[in-house]
Task: inverse folding
């Protein structure tokens, strides 16, 4: 419902994002090496589940945030912490990222994080997006996106930051960047 409201009010959404784009250099400098969980509600089930096989050195990260693994601040924070933990374990050489949700790898940025929120919240959210792709793109592990469902926009970004991508062969699954259709201008990075 909130997504539909946000899509109906494109100008509000793009306005907020273009506000952030005007201080993109500031954002770049603000990316911190460690994300501190700020709004994590520990009563909710984890959005990320990691299985690490010591014998192969390969970890599988299951994204399990119903319904569509949208990239909320909480989700991104958990994901980054999980990647950091694996990075610190030198026996972990490879990381496979996949979805535990049916038909969707990730729906991209959580629209509800950007609609009707304060500039401060949008700033924190955008930093967490940057942190996610920087962490994956710069990882020492071999990273693979096992794309077992649709992966628009931020979901595509996440997959692109991995070293390899394998996508399930299903014509119903889409992948690509659609932010101009949504009226979003991706800021400089
Ligand atoms: C290599 C280095 C490069 C570095 C570059 C750095 C930066 C680059 C900058 C930007 C690039 C990335 C930009 C990202 C922008 C975004 O991600 S904006 C989000 C765009 N996402 C979408 O438009 C996806 C919209 N959703 C869908 O298409 C479909 O929902 C789906 C994912 C294909 C699933 O379809 P399905 O039929 O199974 O489910 P529903 O459509 O019924 O949805 C179920 C439920 O989920 C809600 N929902 C869907 N998507 C989102 C979302 N993105 N955020 C929040 N909520 C979402 C939907 O509203 C439904 O909820 P309900 O109505 O309450 O049931």
Result:
């Amino acid at each position: 419902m909130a997504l539909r409201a946000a899509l109906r009010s494109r100008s509000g959404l793009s306005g907020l994002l273009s506000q952030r784009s005007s201080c993109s250099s500031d954002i770049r400098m603000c990316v911190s090496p460690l994300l501190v969980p700020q709004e994590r509600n520990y009563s909710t089930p984890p959005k990320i589940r990691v299985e690490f096989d010591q014998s192969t050195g390969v970890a599988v990260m299951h994204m399990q945030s119903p319904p569509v693994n949208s990239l909320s601040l909480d989700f991104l924070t958990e994901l980054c912490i999980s990647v950091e933990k694996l990075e610190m374990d030198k026996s972990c050489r490879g990381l496979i990222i996949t979805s535990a949700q049916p038909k969707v790898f990730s729906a991209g940025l959580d629209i509800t994080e950007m609609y009707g929120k304060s500039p401060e919240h949008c700033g924190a959210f955008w930093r967490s997006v940057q942190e996610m792709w920087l962490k994956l793109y710069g990882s020492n592990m071999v990273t693979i996106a096992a794309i077992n469902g649709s992966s628009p926009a931020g979901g595509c970004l996440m997959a692109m930051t991995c070293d390899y991508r394998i996508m399930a062969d299903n014509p119903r699954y889409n992948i690509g960047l659609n932010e101009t259709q949504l009226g979003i201008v991706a800021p400089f990075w």
